[in-house]
Specification:
alpha+beta, 6 helices, 46% helix, binds zinc ion
């Protein structure tokens, strides 16, 4: 890279400080660098920052284009610390554990294992909601019949259950990265719906004296 794109200081949300703090750049490097000629190219820039308040490390990743010596950053995101949705943290422990495990598997490219953990998490949700007997499909259907699960969520959960079955029992069908991502996204959406939105709505009704 012709020019140094890195700013020496930046502000990030620091989870240790639980605040937006100033950070200082310690190190950076570029990879996937591809130059058409001396002045035009692209690559990925990784930067390591240190929170000036507590010393916590923050690692970022951004795509960049360089055109006639000018640096254009794109899609910057934080690689570390990983942020977990606040509503996931509010879910019961058995469900959080499955979710974190599924995430871990996904990041390790273990897609089948990730889908199986998602299925386990869905089962944990059913149990937590009082459905302890029968097959997962029956439990989900009961939750739908009790109006705890909207029909779209039921259909989606059912698909995920099928994926989980493929992961657990089939040696022929392959679980792709996209399948695993879909399962994780759905699992997260289900947690948000059942342990965040539903409670939020109840709080709203209470606050407005509607119940
Ligand atoms: Zn900090």
């Amino acid at each position: 890279m012709e020019s140094n794109p890195s700013i020496e200081k930046a502000t990030f949300f620091c989870p240790v400080c639980n605040a937006i703090t100033e950070s200082v750049l310690l190190f950076s490097y570029q990879y996937n660098v591809n130059y058409q000629d001396e002045l035009q190219g692209s690559g990925i820039n990784v930067e390591l920052f240190k929170c000036l308040n507590c010393g916590n490390p923050i690692l970022t990743n951004e795509d960049y284009l360089e055109i006639e010596g000018e640096y254009f950053p794109q899609n910057k995101f934080v690689l570390f610390p990983e942020k977990e949705s606040a509503f996931v943290a509010k879910a019961p422990k058995s469900i959080i554990n499955s979710y974190r495990e599924a995430e871990k598997c996904y990041k390790a490219n273990a897609y089948e294992a990730s889908v199986i953990m998602c299925r386990k998490g869905i089962d944990a949700i059913c149990v937590e909601k009082g459905e302890i007997k029968g097959k997962l499909l029956d439990k989900l259907r009961n939750l739908k019949d009790k109006d705890l699960l909207e029909v779209t969520f039921f259909n989606w959960a059912n698909r995920l259950r099928e994926f989980g079955n493929i992961g657990a029992h089939s040696h022929d069908s392959e679980i792709t990265k996209e399948d695993a991502r879909d399962c994780l996204d759905f699992f997260e959406a289900l947690i948000m719906y059942l342990y965040h939105l539903v409670n939020k709505y109840a709080d709203f009704l209470k606050r407005k004296d509607l119940i």
